Amino acid sequence: MADLAASVLGAGYQFVACGVITGRGRPDFTLRQALSTHAAMHNAEGWLFREAVIRAGQQMGLRVAAATPDAAYAETADAAGIIVPEVEARMKEFGTQLGPPWGKDQKLASAAAWLALARARVNRS
Q1: pLDDT score recorded for residue 33
Q2: What angle separates helix 104-124 from helix 84-98, to the nearest 10 degrees?
Q3: Which of 69, 94, 110, 123 is deepest in the core (most CB within 10 A)?
């Protein structure tokens, strides 16, 4: 994340926030269970990666916003002061401008970033 921050700052932007799409809480399995199947390993790996990004952002002093996939658009709309259909419309516009791939994962990641920036803006006011 430090390399990303340096790149952002080097391009003349501020690095103020980090958005993460989370799961539904900490996994309720042991290390032995996490290593028992390929699918369980991926589940544990996903949780670990999200936690690492959240903690790195916090250590860098960033405003970190986390949301579940089911709540991301609603939380983004609330933080940005708009309605959910407007978030959905903007996500569609982003996809048109950016091109493929623009699936669910990209939309949720963008919503998380927008959520973090909107919350950071509110906290600076």
Answers
A1: 83
A2: 120
A3: 110
CA 2, 62, 43, 34 dihedral sign is positive
CA–CA separation, 34 and 122 (whole Å) = 39
Q: Distance from first CA to last CA of the chain, Å, rounded?
A: 26
Domain ranges of the chain: 2-124
Q: Which residue, among 14, 10, 9, 45, has the nearest Cα to 27 in the 3D structure?
A: 45
Cα separation values, 80 from 5, 31, 35, 41, 89, Å: 24, 39, 40, 36, 14
SS3 40: helix
Judged by phi (left if over 0) then psi (alpha if -120 to 50, else beta), residue 47 lies in alpha
Pick the closest to residue 28 from 44, 7, 16, 5 (CA basis): 44
Residue 21: phi and psi, rounded to 5, are: -90, 125
pTM to 2 decimal places: 0.83
The model's pLDDT over 17-44, given as tens digits with 9 standing for 90+, comes to: 999 999 866 677 787 887 888 888 888 8
